């Protein structure tokens, strides 16, 4: 048995139940992990409410770091005692868990466990969005919504290191200051200013090359107004609700625009891509190009409070749960 946060019915944070959970021996291709740190992400809330379906009951969470404590049949490349991290495997909110060995990444000595748990999902998301979905080039201008969030703080620093002009949005003066300290050339407080109008002012009416939007419904249409002709809107989250486009001709009227909805499954689903992205992420952190901001930590037993803080926009940077 281990301690875990279990979802037995869909709903609000109150459905997260901290309880004993059975832990089997690792099967073929699996390892058992003693977890040391667990990342909190919006996808965890989407699964909790049923937006992203997971068969009930399930242990919540998708990202963590820990130590290998047992190996299943056929596992190579790892040994007991290895430090590892992962993302994209449901079941993270637990003191111990089983995980697919092929989805684990070895941790270099210079990356602490809490840092790894804070960056695996968010950092790999930033990697494929900035390097694969739209390969950001020196001299380009991007807009990143929720720039003071966990993914935002990683991505804006990385984009700046790639030579882009980075415009961010945030919802308070404190978050504006945090985003400015983490790579943004300009930050717009969307609760005070019309962000589309400000983007046009900042870019002398030209618009940006690409908008990265993890907010969703509340920002989608105005984000289109921020783009230059034939620019790209990358919609990668639903923090304010799910986006829909009732009339696709809207894209032609606003400048023959492109829209994409990327997911990690299609960018880091293969082990080669996972290792490439993680390697570049760790290198960027170790070089100082990305400084990781862990805004808050919660005991694993208080995962419901962590969800309330995340959904209430009360967090900045990454949030980590500690078993």
From TrEMBL:
<dbReference type="InterPro" id="IPR002364">
    <property type="entry name" value="Quin_OxRdtase/zeta-crystal_CS"/>
</dbReference>
<keyword id="KW-0560">Oxidoreductase</keyword>
<dbReference type="Pfam" id="PF08240">
    <property type="entry name" value="ADH_N"/>
</dbReference>
<dbReference type="InterPro" id="IPR013154">
    <property type="entry name" value="ADH-like_N"/>
</dbReference>
<protein>
    <submittedName>
        <fullName>Quinone oxidoreductase</fullName>
    </submittedName>
</protein>
<dbReference type="InterPro" id="IPR013149">
    <property type="entry name" value="ADH-like_C"/>
</dbReference>
<dbReference type="InterPro" id="IPR047618">
    <property type="entry name" value="QOR-like"/>
</dbReference>
<dbReference type="InterPro" id="IPR036291">
    <property type="entry name" value="NAD(P)-bd_dom_sf"/>
</dbReference>
<feature type="domain" description="Enoyl reductase (ER)">
    <location>
        <begin position="11"/>
        <end position="321"/>
    </location>
</feature>
<keyword id="KW-0521">NADP</keyword>
<dbReference type="InterPro" id="IPR011032">
    <property type="entry name" value="GroES-like_sf"/>
</dbReference>
<dbReference type="Pfam" id="PF00107">
    <property type="entry name" value="ADH_zinc_N"/>
</dbReference>
<dbReference type="InterPro" id="IPR020843">
    <property type="entry name" value="ER"/>
</dbReference>
């Amino acid at each position: 048995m281990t301690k875990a946060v279990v979802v037995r019915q869909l709903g609000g944070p109150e459905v997260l139940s901290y309880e004993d959970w059975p832990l089997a021996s690792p099967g073929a291709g699996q390892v058992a992990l003693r977890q040391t740190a667990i990342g909190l992400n919006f996808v965890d809330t989407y699964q909790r409410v049923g937006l992203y379906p997971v068969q009930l009951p399930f242990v919540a969470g998708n990202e963590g770091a820990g130590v290998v404590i047992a190996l299943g049949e056929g596992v190579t490349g790892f040994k007991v005692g290895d430090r590892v991290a992962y993302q994209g495997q449901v079941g993270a909110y637990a003191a111990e868990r089983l995980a697919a060995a092929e989805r684990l990444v070895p941790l270099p000595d210079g990356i602490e466990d809490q840092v790894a748990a804070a960056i695996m999902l968010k950092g790999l998301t930033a990697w494929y969005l900035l390097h694969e979905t739209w390969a950001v080039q020196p001299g380009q201008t991007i807009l990143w919504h929720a720039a003071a969030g966990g993914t935002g703080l990683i991505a804006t620093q990385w984009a700046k290191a790639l030579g882009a002009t980075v415009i961010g949005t945030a919802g308070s003066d404190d978050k504006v200051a945090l985003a400015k300290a983490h790579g943004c050339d300009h930050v717009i407080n969307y609760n005070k200013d019309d962000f589309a109008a400000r983007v046009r002012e900042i870019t002398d009416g030209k618009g940006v090359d690409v908008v990265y939007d993890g907010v969703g419904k509340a920002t989608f249409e105005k984000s289109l107004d921020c783009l230059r002709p034939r620019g790209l809107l990358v919609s990668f989250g639903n923090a304010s609700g799910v986006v829909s486009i009732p009339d696709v001709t809207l894209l032609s009227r606003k400048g023959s625009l492109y829209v994409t909805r990327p997911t990690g499954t299609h960018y880091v689903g293969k082990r080669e891509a996972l290792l490439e992205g993680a390697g570049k992420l760790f290198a960027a952190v170790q070089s100082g190009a990305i400084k990781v901001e862990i805004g808050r930590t919660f005991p694993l037993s208080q995962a419901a409070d962590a969800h309330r803080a995340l959904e209430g926009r009360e967090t900045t940077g990454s949030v980590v749960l500690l078993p």
